[in-house]
Every structure is written in structure tokens, then in C-alpha cells.
Amino acid sequence: MIPFDFEYYKPISMQMAVDMFQSLQKQGKKPMYYAGGTEIITWARTNSISPGAVIDLKSIPECNVMGIQRDKLILGACVTLSALSAANPFPLLSETAQGAADQTARNKITLGGNICGRIYYREAVLPLLLTNSHMVIAGIHGTRETSIHNVFSQQMRLANGEFLVQILTDRDYLSLPFVHYKKRQIGNVGYPLVTVAALKKDNQIHTAYSGACSFPFRSIEIDQALNDTSVPLAVRIERAIDNIPAPILQNTEGSASYRKFVLQQTIADTVSILERR
Ligand SMILES: Cc1cc2nc3c(=O)[nH]c(=O)nc-3n(C[C@H](O)[C@H](O)[C@H](O)COP(=O)(O)OP(=O)(O)OC[C@H]3O[C@@H](n4cnc5c(N)ncnc54)[C@H](O)[C@@H]3O)c2cc1C
Predict the structure, then answer these.
(1) 1 in a domain, yes or no?
(2) Looking at the domain assignment, is residue 2 inside a domain?
(3) Which residues have C-beta within 8 Å of that of residue 20, sequence separation ≥ 6?
(4) CATH of the domain at 50
(5) What angle do CA 6, 8, 14 make, to 5 degrees?
(6) Reported confidence tier of residue 187, pLDDT bands at 50, 70, 90
(7) Which of 43, 81, 111, 215 could form a disulfide with 154 if both were Cys (CB 3.0 to 4.6 A apart)?
(8) Which residue, judged by its Cα, is nearest atom 37 of ligand 1?
(9) What is the pLDDT of residue 186?
(10) pLDDT(87) > 90
(11) 65 plus 150 within the same structural domain
(12) How far is the CA of 113 from the centre of ligand 1 (A)?
């Protein structure tokens, strides 16, 4: 049960959503954008958040687009993870999406909600970091398009009242050789010990990680270490791990030392497979 009352709004255009946010904020209602609601409901039940109003983005047409236009894959922020996997326009993203939660939850969880959420893992962002995707963002000054690297650093960095509308990915990336591993403590459902998504472009391996530390990331230094074939693979992996941008995560899913061990094995498998492709 959610232990407080809140107002619910469902705008049908980007402008309406942005205007509602501004107006509700002026009234002191601490509005939040709402997509699948899985994280908002979880936090609200435990009183970790208490918005006075939520603005459901799912009736905004631009947020529900999924298709190729002018050599780019366009994915609306409100496309669910299960719809994404079923349509499969981007196999690495489909596989990553399929690794999150179970089918029932994936029917609700949206691509935008996963990327903009606060829970550490945000696994759907990994393929988007690897493909230098672009984000379309709506705010009081209209919409803007920018590289994911300008707005996603550990987490989405949106200005007050902005929301994610779409993600654009160059078509050339969609069919590159890829590897995706999700290692859990136990079973097939649940948050990761380590998730590695990787692809190979122009004979170089590019990798991105979730679960290794308290935020998902891609690191140029790690990729440089892994692509340095002048040294043995074990050395490349050790150098890669030295470049993880924050302390290795330690929580109920696993200790830092166990995570490091799993990460070493997973990187070894990733590099071995992609070097043969
Ligand atoms: C049982 C279960 C298991 C899970 N396992 C995993 C897992 O292993 N790996 C993983 O990565 N995820 C996992 N998740 C999903 C994750 O924890 C979040 O619950 C989910 O990603 C939130 O998506 P949502 O669409 O429901 O977002 P919501 O709950 O609607 O919103 C989440 C946050 O994002 C903001 N937001 C939503 N959409 C937008 C937008 N378009 N623009 C700006 N801000 C926005 C909201 O304001 C809110 O702060 C799991 C979820 C469940 C329920």
C-alpha cells in the first residue's frame, strides 16, 4: 500500500507534460514523471519518496515510437522492455532488456524508466553507451538532442522538469558482433553480480558494465587495456580492473572480492569470444 495521497496526470503531448510539471512544482506538489511505475511504487510503499503528483508519460505519442527512420533506430522512452525484446530491432539491447526482472515486471518497466531510475543497475543503458546513442529530451525550452555521453554520467543528469523522450541509435551499430553476460548470485531472475555488454567495431572491443560498482559505466581506459594485444590476456584484464571508476560494489548480492573474481572470468570470456569474431 502507498501510505499517502497523490494526484495522477496523464498528458497527451510533450508540451502538456512539461507545463504540468512546472505548474505542479509551483504549487509545491513535488511532481515526478512516471513511466512503468515499478520503481516509484516500490519507493513510495516504503516512504522513501512522497511525490504529491505524478505525470504519466505513456500517452505521449513520441514516447512510444519504435522503428527505423533515416538510418537511425528511434526508441521511445515509454517502450517496455518486453515490447523491445519481442520486436528485437537491436539484438544486444533486447538481450540486455531480457536480463532485467521477470516477464511480468518487464511488461511494465520502460526503457526510459530503467535508464532514469535510481536503483544502481540500470542495465538497459549499457548498449546505448556502447553505440554512442543520442537522447531526445523535452523541457521548458522545447526538445533538445544530445549525445548520451553528455547526459549520462553514472546516472541521467536532466535539468529540473526535463524528461527523456527518445533514444536514437545509428543503424550501423545494430548488427555488430556482440556479447552479453549477466552473472547473478543465484537463479535467472534478479539484480546482477556483474553484467558485461560488449561489441566489436573496426577490430576493437568496446565494453560496458553494470554491477561492478554503484553505477553503470563505460570506460575508454578499460577498453584501451583490453585491446592492448601486446601483453597476455591476464595482464590486460588486471589493468582493466584497475581502471574501474569507483570501488567494487559490496552488497547482499555479493562481496567485493567475489564480484572481482566473477568480473575477471566474465571479461576473459567476453574478450576471448569477440577476438574470434
Ligand atoms: C522485480 C524486479 C526486478 C528488477 N531487476 C532488474 C535488474 O536486474 N536490472 C535492472 O537494470 N533493472 C531491474 N529492475 C528494474 C528497475 O529496478 C526499475 O524498477 C525500473 O527500471 C524502473 O522503470 P519504470 O519504467 O517502472 O520507471 P518508473 O518507476 O516509472 O520511474 C523510475 C524513475 O525514473 C524516472 N523516469 C521514468 N521515466 C522517465 C523519463 N522518460 N524521463 C525522465 N525520468 C523518467 C521517474 O521519475 C523515476 O524517478 C527490476 C524491477 C523489478 C520490479
Answers:
(1) no
(2) no
(3) 9, 11, 31, 55
(4) 3.30.43
(5) 135
(6) confident
(7) 215
(8) 113
(9) 86
(10) yes
(11) yes
(12) 4
